[in-house]
Amino acid sequence: MQHQFSKVEYAARRDKTLQLAKDLGCQSVFTFGENKNGVGITWLTGWGTTRLAYHFLSSQESILWILFHNHLPAAQRSLKDVDIRDFSLEDIEQIINKFKGNKIATFGVVPKEVRNFAQKSNVELIAIDNEHNKMRSIKSDEEIDALAKGAYATDCGANAIIEKCKVETNDWELLAEARSSYTRLGARDHICYLCVSDMTMPDRDVPAQFPEGRAVAKGSVVTFEISASVAAEYPGQLLRSIAVGEPSALFKELHAVADQALSNMRKILRPGINAMELVAASNVIEEAGFTTTDDLFHGLGAGYLQPIGTSTSRVPVHKPDIEIVPGMAIVLQPNVTAKDHLSGVQTGEMVIMTKDGFKDIHHVKPGFIVV
């Protein structure tokens, strides 16, 4: 399974970014990233930031500096209309010097060296992160296609976890099954979080970011949140809970409340509503005496984006006073937990907002899975 964004897509992204900069009195943009944290660089060039990388964009130039010379060949094979160079602070200082007394827009965490260069050249750095994040929350047709392919790969990983979830299997093995299934398709990791706990003596409420060697047993509950992608920063996202044997009364109730919250949110989700209406639709969680640990819903695709909302009892709380519009990719995930945070369930997945409602792009069986 392959996905390549077109030259037309990248040209449109760069034009939109330059327009944001021009609206703030800037004629160019510097974008920064490091160690897979550089969504702006990925969005503008297609480079899934490995180590340190800077990108400069103007109406005449698109330059990408990459740390480690042995990373350049991969970039040169895959990127479109980008001048790819070895990392050089001297090179970057020279470009900043060309803008003496003017403004440069920035996206990402600005390194100290760049701030020093700008100060010496009397260049004002103007952050466009918030404006750019809002712009990226609305997906193009090519982006939606990439997310749908990521959802398919994610579903394959989820089904592998469900199939492998047997007594004496540990979380390392479940993770390996998931990764193996979507890697064979040409997909890559985004996240794969797992939790193995006991339904009668639970001791954790959300999946762990790292496996701990916990083994599945009769009476275990396995919860997971998984995302795979075929294009960097464009994953699907799916969350499920698996009971090994008959679910306990507590976990039946937790999941029933989660199912109801998810159903309530799906019933009202459509373009034109305020995201706070989704928060209100989840009040069944607090009414049942439960709470949440994770966000209730969030945007995804080219970053973790608005709308980001939490249930009313979650601390810290997010209250997104934002209109839902077509083109948003939203993960609905009412992951209900007990107030003592020793037990919890996972459910939900990503949907794509359309003109009339929303489209499901995941196809794993919903609800509490019993094996």
Short structural summary:
Helix content is 33%, strand content 23%. With 371 residues, the chain is α+β, with helices and mostly antiparallel strands. The model has no long low-confidence stretch (mean pLDDT 97).
Explain this structure to me?
This protein has 371 residues and is an alpha+beta fold. The chain has two domains: 7-135, 3-Layer(aba) Sandwich (Creatine Amidinohydrolase, Chain A, domain 1); 141-370, Creatinase/methionine aminopeptidase superfamily (Creatine Amidinohydrolase). It is 33% helix and 23% strand. The protein has helices at residues 7-23, 39-45, 72-78, 89-97, 112-120, 129-136, 141-164, 171-183, 249-268, 276-281, 284-287; strands at residues 29-33, 53-57, 62-66, 83-86, 103-107, 124-127, 188-198, 220-229, 238-243, 291-292, 297-300, 304-309, 329-332, 336-337, 348-353, 358-360, 369-370. Strands 7, 8, 9, 11, 12, 13, 15, 16 and 17 form a nine-stranded mixed β-sheet that branches. Helix 4 (89-97) runs parallel beside helix 5 and helix 7 (141-164) crosses helix 8. The protein is globular and about 70 Å long.
**The CATH fourth-level homologous superfamily of the largest domain:** Creatinase/methionine aminopeptidase superfamily
Termini separation (Å)? 30 Å
Q: How many strand units?
A: 17
What is the element string, with H for helices and E for strands?
A: HEHEEHEHEHEHHHEEEHHHEEEEEEEE
SSE class: alpha+beta
Strand content range? 15-25%
Largest sheet: 9 strands, mixed
**CATH architectural grouping of the largest domain:** Alpha-Beta Complex
Instruction: Return the domain count.
Output: 2
CATH class membership of the largest domain = Alpha Beta
What do the pLDDT scores average to? 97
Query: Regions with pLDDT < 50 over 5+ consecutive residues?
Result: none
Compute the number of helices: 11
- Helix amount: 25-40%
What name does CATH use for the topology of the largest domain? Answer: Creatine Amidinohydrolase
Radius of gyration: 22 Å
Q: Judging from the principal axes of the Cα atoms, what is the shape?
A: globular
